[in-house]
Amino acid sequence: MHIxxxxxxxxxxxxxxxxxxQSWAEEFRDRGCAVTVVTVLPPRGTTLTDPQGIRVRRAPVxxxxxxxxxxxxxxxxxxxxxxxxxxxxxRTDLYVVEPPPTTVAVVRVIAALRRTPYVVDAxxxxxxxxxxxxxxxxxxxxxxxxxxxxxxxxxxxxxAHEPLIRRFREVGIQTPATPIGFGADTSVxxxxxHPMPATPVFVYAGTYSEWHxxxxxxxxxxxxxxxxxxxxxxxxxxGQDRELLQRRAAELGITETVAFRSPxxxxxxxxxxxxxxxxxxxxxxxxxxxxxxxxxxxSSLAVGCPVIFAGVxxxxxxxxxxxxxxxxxxxxxxVSAAAEAMDRAATSPLxxxxxxxxxxxxxxxxxxxxxxxxxxxxxLTIAGR
Length: 385
Fold this sequence. Notes:
Strand order of the largest sheet: 3-2-1-4-5-6-7
Helix content: 40-55%
Structural class: alpha/beta
């Protein structure tokens, strides 16, 4: 059986989707499938390390200033050539597609022409997210139509969680969907003992766009740093709020203790999280994206680093109902609440033993391998049909 994965990002490019799709590709391969990945050339300077036994076809693409494939022109630079790349490629038994919606729409066209089913890694509702980046009714309506059309043509959707599936139904997307959750690559993110720093270290790893509202932690850190001299806060990743966060750090006078780093490989990120006092995640309320889950928490927990989450959405009950008291805390999207949580973490950091137990707990529950197995089970049934 031949499986074709279509995505604008794939390993070794640093992205949550990259690791997820690689785990899926490897699971298909291990089940005896021939796997082809149709993707893009990674940023200049990246060392190509394609998974063994998987054919990866790459093509150039436009990138933004942070070297990420993001924005209308960047998506079209992938989607337009994709139409021809798929049309003249060898036949496949199933397409597995990673959004944006325009990519899903291209695959629907090709899938219809070649009478081939497709499934979608539907981790988000892009038209909801876009409402936080533009007020253009034309753009938002067009995106909603394209997204709904593409997702309704799929045989199955793999969604992050049940609230997202309910949101699909609200906007008219009726395709069968499975809430698969997300997880961490536990071959990379696992406990390893690191000397804990003498002063508190806070790490925000991942995207920080408008709807994340990561600025709440900058303001909170300005308060915490007064009680804990030498404390540091590091943002690792990219996002449209980067310049805003840098300006805010300057206004608060904390530029000496706040650092901004570009995305790094998981193998490089893991020891940073392992040595951090706590990791940070946020989701700003009231922006139409309150059902989203901040998947970065899985990688943090997998290395034994507790999480402070500020905001709304399913991450709140996830942390509050976790059957491990050291997993972390969820607080309101409020500077004082975030500062109080950061101060508690700085005052009473987890012991090495507690971090090891936290890692073991997370690895047993939230492994990408287990999720990939469920995805492939469903996908092979659809392809066989």
